[in-house]
Amino acid sequence: MSATTGASSLGAKDNWVTVCAISMVAGMIADVLHEGVGHALVALLTVAPSGTLSTVAWSSAYDSKLVAAGGTLVNLASGGMFWLLLRNSKRGSSQVRLFLLLCCAFNLFTGTGYFFFSGVSNFGDWAVVIAGMKAHVFWRVLLVVVGLLAYWFAAVTIGTALVRYVGVPLHETPRIRLLTIVPYVSSVVLSCLAGLMNPIGLTLVLVSALPASAGANSGLLWMRYYVSKRTVPDTMPEPVGRSGIWIALSIVIALPFVFVLGRGITLHR
Fold it and tell me: Pick from 67, 72, 73: which is nearest to 44 by CA?
């Protein structure tokens, strides 16, 4: 074991406010990628002359299976991109590495989780994709199976990356809990607050915001149990210290995210 991987983070103190701020920025990016790029942009470039974009939905009189699938596909592609950036950022600060990890996590969990959610509930993006297809029950079962396997793979990948690339040893249970529970709670609270601003109100929060945050990101709470015990940090363990820049950035982005995008904005070609 090298000196780098063998270094102990015992006694390291992560600043939970900064962790919360980083989590909020990463969560908002994943949301905008899903709704804004995957749905709205794809729709405007293909079938829709206009529509309304919010944090929980893209609404238009024009729709297609490509538009429905777009959100998930963009999340999966983005998750892979953030994972590659994280893997090659060993010299980056602990804040930057945590940010890249959470961007990867929120995108991959949303992308893979949607397969399972639509297969079980027959609601949401992939329910639209398979609507009208022959052997509909088969496609729903396939979504459930693919969703479970893909989500588990994503959870193991992200959990392993937390140890290897962020530099949090598995034996540092308090650190792992803080760096997973705080992002999870932050994503749920932010998603629900923004969702409540939507004109449809609580209904859309219950059927969209909560499943997309509390459900999809639940892997953060248990992924550490499936990381190989032999996994060790590839970088020097370093606490996520307090950062006024990240805190300020999260506030600056969250205000329009909740009070402007949350209420919905109309977009045209």
Answer: 67
Which tens digits make up the pLDDT trace of 117-126? 999 999 889 9
pLDDT digits (tens, 9 = 90+) for 145-174: 999 999 999 999 999 999 999 999 999 999
Beta pairing partners, 268: 50
Give the tokens for residue 151. Answer: 């989500």
Q: Exposed, middle or buried, 107 (CB in 10 Å: 0-12/13-18/19+)?
A: buried
DSSP one-letter string for 214-233: IIGGGHHHHGGGGS-TT---
User: Which of helix, strand or coil describes residue 103?
Assistant: helix
CA dist., res. 185 & res. 24, Å (int): 10
Backbone phi, then psi, for 144, in 5-degree steps? Answer: -65, -50
The pairing of beta strand 50-53 with beta strand 265-268: antiparallel
CB 83 within 8 A of CB 235: no
Indicate the burial class of 135 (C-beta count within 10 angstroms; 0-12, 13-18, 19 or more). Answer: exposed
For 106, half-sphere exposure in the C-beta direction (CA atoms, 13 angstrom radius) is: 27
Distance separating alpha carbons of residues 23 and 261, to the nearest angstrom: 18
Q: At residue 52, what are phi and psi to the nearest 5 degrees?
A: -115, 125
Angle at 165 between CA 164 and CA 170, to 5 degrees: 35
Instruction: State pTM to two decimals.
Output: 0.93
Rg (CA), the chain: 19
Q: Which of 265, 252, 262 is nearest to 194 (CA)?
A: 262
Closest CA to 112 of 196, 257, 183, 215: 215
